[in-house]
Amino acid sequence: MNGRIELELRHLRCLVEIVDTGSFTDAAIELGISQAAVSRTLLALERILGVRLLHRTSRSVTPTTAGVQVLACARNLLSDADELIHQAITGHTRLHIGHAWSAMGRHTAEFQRRWYDRYPGIELHLIRHNTPTAGLAEALCDLAVIRTVVDTRRYAHALVGHERRYIALASDDPWAKRRSICLAEICERTLVVDRRTGTTTLDLWPENARPAMEYTRDVDDWLAAVATGRSVGITPQATVTQYRRDGITYRPVRDAAPVPVHLIWRRQDPHPATHAAVALLTDLYREDP
């Protein structure tokens, strides 16, 4: 039989316990098995891997060179296995909400505070992942906040609110002295856009009056490009709240349509707390002046 098929977690746990406790006797006590079973398990692991893993003397047990390498891998594998079990057991007591850039914007802190007050038995984790579904397609979260077009064929969704659009400028840009900017003026500038998760498209302008565009792949790159003064950006209000930076000024775009904010989730087997999250976030957006 192939060695990789024979290898089991119990073999790795045995090796780790022998090294950590320093003896076969103490490892047997920790594992709740006989000392003879510990010896057989270690010999089986060495046979599977084809290398000797431990130097044994009457007074000590130390890893061989190969044993040191196997021990490091064993610890990682056992840790991953324990986390897998923990996630399976506690899956519904944790809620992971993904976002590409700016979470819930100005509502982020209040969402967290109210969640902990109302649902103390469900841990809330916010995860930033710069993909179109903010980590949902990658199975990194249970729900995702998105401000782009929803793929309704794949995901269930709820519209929770809208956010005003702002222009991001270098602070020494002449426009930074103004109270607001209109779309027609922006077509004269170079616009920097996140190609994967950005909310700005050329559809905001007529076909015969559109700005030049440059593309980035992350909010930090986007901010760095704006700070140079060579380009400007258009972004939802959430970015204004979450990404205040020296050298960057935000001003409202007075005639641009607002950005819809959705929560999305997988249609099959949604997290039990999904509708609670939707209701809470919807309430927060409704409280906007």
Provide a descriptive summary of the structure in words.
The protein is of the alpha/beta class and 289 residues long. The chain has three domains: 3-90, Orthogonal Bundle (Arc Repressor Mutant, subunit A); 91-162 and 260-286, D-Maltodextrin-Binding Protein, domain 2; 165-257, Periplasmic binding protein-like II (D-Maltodextrin-Binding Protein, domain 2, 3-Layer(aba) Sandwich). It has helices at 3-6, 9-21, 24-31, 35-49, 65-90, 108-118, 183-186, 219-227, 237-242, 274-286, and strands spanning 54-56, 61-63, 94-99, 123-128, 143-146, 155-163, 165-170, 190-194, 212-216, 233-236, 248-252, 259-266. The strands form four sheets. A five-stranded mixed sheet has the order 4-3-5-12-6, with helices on one face. Strands 10-7-11 form a three-stranded antiparallel sheet. A two-stranded antiparallel sheet has the order 1-2. Helix 2 (9-21) packs across helix 3 (24-31) and helix 2 crosses helix 5 (65-90). The N and C termini lie far apart (69 Å). The mean pLDDT is 91.
